[in-house]
Design a protein that fits this description.
The chain has twelve helices and eight strands. It is α/β, with parallel strands linked by helices. The protein has a single domain, classed as Alpha-Beta Barrel (TIM Barrel). The chain has an eight-stranded parallel beta sheet, with helices on both faces.
């Protein structure tokens, strides 16, 4: 692969619209991205959506790894064609692991029919009373053991039926005091609490061979990174803790690099470079295709200048290749 193709393998982009217009195809082609993140703005019906994915793949001349936040409750991007499961917090009160695994199975079957390969779920965040409601009912609750067993069941149901799961938001967002969509928060829990409560579900997800883990745009000085950097930019948390000490060998994803928490650190292009430096494999830019183009250029320059090692980018591209080989759904059939 060329350097631009290698970088394109690391980019996952979102876009406006419900049809594969010439303008959209041209913009996506310029990003070189091999993965998409889709939202409700891209969906009007199952028929329209599958036609959109099929037309994008045909127009770009490449298969696309399509991802969606399909958590249940308030985080469901599709208005039809899927079972609308209740939020995880409600299900925790009434359902056991067997039922949650069946939920994952149903989700996998329905998402595959829509052309989805990766469910950006479950949230394995352990909820702490008084935290910002950005997580709230997206969590399986405040008991780490219960969060662990239900999250692992959901992962098992999804992945045993062909859709990759993504545990989020590493190293734990359940006690976040403010919404990182808007500002950069800090979680000041000590190492022992983080290990016993918030890291435990991630370690269990790794043992269950979860395909992907998403990090958070939050600072964690208690985990040994006091420099005011969010996990997104912290090699100590991503390369050292998650990759080396916890033993995760799958794909590590950023949260959306356009979120408000990162604005003080500069452009989306700079955020992409810093996230790659920290050890992320896939860089999510969920709205602005111009920003995705900027990220491509910034990563290219950083590699040529020696700031990013080509070998590290190639290692990330290889992990994404492994994800694609295991979970990329069959080509969507042509319309009758």
């Amino acid at each position: 692969m060329s350097l631009e193709e290698t970088i394109g393998a690391l980019l996952a982009v979102g876009f406006e619209g419900t049809a594969a217009s010439a303008e959209l195809l041209a913009a996506l082609q310029r990003t070189r991205a091999q993965s998409l993140v889709v939202f409700s703005r891209n969906f009007t019906s199952p028929e329209q959506f599958t036609a959109l994915i099929r037309d994008l793949e045909e127009g770009l001349g490449r298969r696309l790894l399509v991802m969606v936040d399909h958590e249940g409750g308030r985080i469901i991007r599709f208005s039809s064609g899927v079972t609308r499961f209740a939020d995880p917090l409600s299900l925790e009160r009434t359902h056991g692991p067997k039922a949650i695994e069946q939920q994952g199975t149903t989700e996998a079957e329905e998402l595959q029919r829509l052309g989805i390969s990766v469910n950006l779920a479950p949230c394995v965040d352990v909820l702490v009373e008084g935290s910002d409601p950005v997580i709230g009912d997206r969590s399986y609750g405040s008991d780490p053991q219960r969060v662990t067993e239900l999250s692992v069941a959901r992962i098992r149901g999804l992945q045993s039926h062909g859709v990759a799961a993504c545990a989020k938001h590493f190293p734990g967002l359940g006690s976040v005091p403010r919404d990182p969509h808007k500002v950069l928060p800090t979680i000041r829990l000590d190492l022992a609490t983080m290990q016993q409560v918030h890291l435990a579900p991630f370690q269990a997800a790794i043992s269950a061979r979860v395909a992907a883990i998403m990090s958070s745009h939050v600072c964690y000085p208690g985990l040994g990174d006091p420099g005011g950097l969010p996990a997104t930019f912290s090699a100590r948390l991503i390369r050292e803790l998650l990759r080396r000490r916890m033993g995760f060998s799958g794909a590590i994803l950023t949260d959306d690099l356009e979120m408000g928490a990162l604005r003080s650190f500069g452009s989306v292009g700079e955020a992409a470079v810093r996230a790659a430096e920290a050890g992320h494999d896939m860089l999510l830019i969920c709205s602005n295709l111009a920003a995705a183009e900027e990220a491509l250029s910034s990563l290219h320059r950083a590699c040529q200048a020696g700031r990013l090692a080509l070998s590290e980018l190639e290692a990330s591209a290889f992990r994404i290749k492994e994800l694609r080989e295991k979970f990329l759904r069959a080509p969507l059939p042509k319309a009758a």
